[in-house]
Amino acid sequence: MCLINFAYKYHPQYDFILAANRDEFFERPTAKADYWEDVPGLIAGKDLEQGGTWLGITKEGQIAALTNYREVRKKKNEKSRGELVLDYLKNPDSPTNYLTKVRELSHDYLGFNLLCGTVNELYYFSNRQKRIEQLTPGIHSVSNAFLNTSWPKVERGKTLVEKALQNESNDLVEYLLDGLTNDEKAEEKLLPQTGVGIELEKQLSPMFIKMGNYGTRCSTVITISKSKEVTFCERTYLQGQETYEDQRFQFYIGE
C-alpha cells in the first residue's frame, strides 16, 4: 500500500473504517482479494512475485496493512515486506508480541510502516522509527513517511474519511472508493523532500497515481461495525482503462 487512511473507534456505528490505495508497477503479477485456500479465514490480495500481501483481514478479526517508507537506498537482498502482513495474519499472536519480534528483525527489510491488531487493540510500527505505538481513537493516515506525517495526500485522505463519516445519506463504501480516485497533484511548495527529485515527488503526490507503467492498481475499503459486521471491498483498476472490477465480502467476526 502507499496510502492508508482510517478511522479508529471514532464513529458511533463503526469501530474501524479503512480506505487505502495500493500503488505498484502494473507488470508485477498480482491476485485480486479473495479467501486464501492455504490460510483459512484470510481475505487479502496476493503478490504473486513474492507470495505476501499488502493488506488483509481474517474472519477472527485480525487486521494488518503495510506501506513502504520512501527513501533513496540501494536494495541489499532484503526480505519481502509483504511477508510481514501475512505472517501476522497467519499466526495468531498478540500484536505487541508480534511487533516485538518484527522490531528485532527489522534490519532485514527496507523501510516500512506496519499496522496490525484488532478493533480492540491496534498498533503501528515503523522500522525507521522502531517504536511500537498503540493507536488512539481518531482519524489517522500513513503514506510513505511516518504515521500522520502531514503530506498533502495524507491530509486529503483524512479529510475524505471525515467527510464520509459526516455524509450519512451516502453509501459509505462507495463514497470512500470514489474519493480515493482523487488524482490532484500537490503544489510544489507543499511537496515532501525524500530524495527522489521534485518532478517525481509531484507525480507521487496525489492520492491516486497515474504514471504509465506505475500507479494505483487497487483501492480497498474495510468497515467494521459495532456489531462486528465486516464489509471488505477491493476495487481493481486496469492499466490504461477507465473500467474497474470489484471484489466484495461480508461476514461477522468470529462466525
Give a quick precis of the structure.
With 255 residues, this protein is of the alpha+beta class. The protein contains 5 helices and 14 strands.
What does this structure look like?
The structure is a single chain. With 255 residues, the protein is an alpha+beta fold. It has a single domain (3-149, 213-252), classed as Penicillin V Acylase, Chain A (4-Layer Sandwich). Helix content is 19%, strand content 35%. The protein is built from five helices and 14 strands. The strands form two sheets. Strands 1, 2, 10, 11, 12, 13 and 14 form a seven-stranded antiparallel β-sheet that branches. The chain starts with a strand and ends with a strand. The model has no long low-confidence stretch (mean pLDDT 95).
